[in-house]
Amino acid sequence: MHKSSFIIAAPTSNSGKTTITLGLLRALKNRGKEVQPFKSGPDYIDPKFHGIACGKTGVNLDLFMMTEQHLKETYLDYIATSEIQCIEGVMGLFDGAKKAERSTAELAKKLNLPIIFVVDAKAVAYSVAPLLYGFKNFDPSLNIVGVIFNRVNTKSHYKFLQEASEDVGIKALGYVPFLEDCKIQSRHLGLSIANLKEYDKKITAIAKQIEKTVHLNQLLDLTTYAETTHTKQKAVPPIAPLTIGVAKDEAFNFSYSQNINALKKIGKVVFFSPIKDEKLPQTDVLYFPGGYPECYVKNLAENKAMLSAIKEYAENEGVIIAECGGMMYLGKNMIDQNGDSYPMANVFSFSSSMKAMKLHLGYRTIHLDEYTFKGHEFHYSEVYGDENIETVGQIFSARNQEVPTKIYKYKNVLASYIHLYFGEANQFKSITNYITDKTLQL
Questions:
Q1: Nearest in space to 225 (alpha carbons), one of 7, 430, 434
Q2: Where do the TM regions start and end (predicted)?
């Protein structure tokens, strides 16, 4: 059986990678294909859109947070049960943490993936030729097999682009016109998370357009590879499994699928809702991932029973790991964009605020005594009143520069703005061991 695998890349951000990816995923699903989406980089939101488009949530592939061996094993495990693999790239093709390091281009090389290029051609015609030529020849080891042009409204416009592609030696695979009703809004301020399903109609329309103006069969032919045998390692049941409570609802839903899979390998995962549930499940560890708690701050504040339960759990030496939005929830107050303050769990005495939003972004390496962890920071909120709270560890950027991000510790609670990656063996065990200064039976 022959399969198809490709990575969607672009010269810059906002070229239409997500729009084209979602349309392709839905079009392939409509043809009865088993499609597995992936996302390059530390993105929680695009994988959710992938799930709407084809029924399977995208899996993150990240060259900074994952070792190369773990990344390849993860990829092979998922493609073993799919017919087509579509990997959505991040930013421009060569944009990495340092030059092209850990970029979409490097991911394509590590996994030996052909590249489908997406170019926003709204304001360009034959002049696209030197752009394509430059990307094709800048790194000859890359295999850019085809290009799809975005925001092209006429066949005559596409003809110029097609001629440019032919002269450069990259196959023109079609175009997608500007679709006013199909814009995918900014996905980083909670604007489109509350009701993801509203995008189903948009994705349907994009897919219909792709079937009309993109040569989908040709794309699949150009990205076909012979199936190889890969035996997925069987999970070994833990000797003394833990019960791990994971916060999951509208406010808390930013967690890598690999993180949850890792937790399931070492114990029983129980999901609970800080918005709707009034008590905590019986657990050995609580995990609060990030999300958009600021969009549900009133609901969270009104659930006083849950807030009290979390405070009591922490005071009684319960083990808690909290990331970004989860950390904000454990503070004393959360202040929304209007300046209104709402009481939170008060495990920590600081307050978080969305009043004066400022972007904090980047990969992070965390050193906690003898332990080292990888993660990613992305938030607009700020923390206030944390001067007297214990902080631990040292945090460095992808360029190995120390950053002022804080990791807060209280009893057996560890919280920070950093979204941790613990999808590889023993990483979660190391985190809990650091918190408790003892070995949990994992």
A1: 7
A2: none
Strand 285-288 relative to strand 242-247, pairing: parallel
pLDDT digits (tens, 9 = 90+) for 260-314: 999 998 899 999 999 999 999 999 999 999 999 999 999 999 999 999 999 999 9
pTM exceeding 0.90: yes
Per-residue burial over 155-168, b if 16 or more Cβ lie within 10 Å, else e, is eebbebbbebbeeb
In angstroms, how far is CA 162 from the centroid of its own chain?
A: 33
Q: How far apart are CA 383 and CA 352, in angstroms?
A: 4
| Phi, psi (degrees; rounded to nearest 5) at 295 | -80, -15
Strands 59-61 and 407-410: unpaired
Active-site residue flag, 182: no
Tens-digit pLDDT profile for residues 180-228: 777 766 555 554 556 667 789 999 999 999 999 999 999 999 999 977 6
Domains and CATH numbers, the chain: 2-226 (3.40.50.300), 242-436 (3.40.50.880)
Report the alpha-carbon distance of residue 318 to residue 413 in Å, rounded: 7
Question: Residue 309 in contact with residue 279, Cβ under 8 Å?
Answer: yes
Q: Provide the sign of the torsion angle of the four alpha carbons 191, 193, 194, 199, taken in this order.
A: positive
Which candidate in 54, 86, 182, 324 is catalytic?
A: 324
Q: What is the 3-state secondary structure (H, E, C) of 383-399?
A: EECCCCCCECCEEECCC
